[in-house]
Amino acid sequence: MDLIGFAQARFTEVEDQLRQMAARLGGADITVIPIAAKHGDNVVHRSGRTPWYGGPTLLEYLESVELAAPQAEASRLRLPVQWVSRPTAEIRRRYTGRLAAGTLSVGDPVVSLPAGSRSTVTSLDTLDNERTTAVAPLSVSIELADDIDVGRGDVLISGAAHAVRPVLARELDATVCWFVDTPLRAGDRLALKQTTKTVRATVQELHSRVDPETLDELDSPVELALNDIGTVTLRTSSVVIADAYADNRDTGAFILIDESTNDTVGAGTILEAREVKPGAHLRTDIRWHPSSLDRGYRWRATGQPGATIWFTGLPASGKSTIAVAVERALVESGGWPTCSTATTCATACPTTWVSRPATALKTSGG
User: Fold this and answer.
1) Residue 18 domain-assigned (yes or no)
2) Which residue among 32, 81, 184, 357 is least packed, with the fewest CB closer than 10 Å?
3) Could you tell me the residue range of the domain that residue 203 belongs to?
């Protein structure tokens, strides 16, 4: 204010501009205070150089402003799992993370997503002590009644009938801010980190770019350059447990990472999260062409029938190790097996969906 001589007319002009901008950004409630930090005008005490201003000082405003309360309803529980521990074989697994929303209490039913396994909370600890109830955004370590399939990146939600469920999303419409010189274009592939889970994501489409001067949206941009903000559609390699950012700022936000450098290249907020059903968005230019060899002929020629064996289990439980050993044994006995992971299958065959980590072993006679 000292640079404009504490002029009321200029302050009012700037205030009007800020309120117009806030209205275009969703109608945020803002308070504009004329201050000059050099001399402390309206910082702690009212300034005699702004007799026309009747609002609060900066300190008065900070001491009285009402902060948005966290979503404390148990039905909105979101607990992204960051770490799974089991100190000894006699102790049940404990699941650790920071509550992103809701309330969690001992005795509450919970559901692990994306697997859908159900259990009940039997113990709840925080950094300070054991307690019976915790509210977001506390970090907690919990024990469940059952050893269900839960790993890092999974999300525990309320198991109550009236629970507000997130979306098990494979497509995200999002607003993205781009951080680096190399522009973002449709078709780019990046790592997407949301809560405690990291997946690969492909930019399906750039919808618009925001003009920072006018806040107008420019449709169908070719790219997003450094510091650009725009709306995009992202397709993820696996399920993301997501909410809209307007509903939850933790499960509705993400960062984008360049996998070659591990640099954070962008950040985004989710506008809409969508499930993609198996078989949806199939490419129409790829078609099945039947072989001239029937199954019986192939089996007789190779000397073995076809079969597929799936090895499933918890992360790092030894699925791939066992599959590789079985593959070697089959080869040494004269078989023609092929070993692949579920990720490889899903990449090669978009219609292949696996709900948990798996390794497949397929004999070539199939």
Assistant:
1) yes
2) 32
3) 169-274
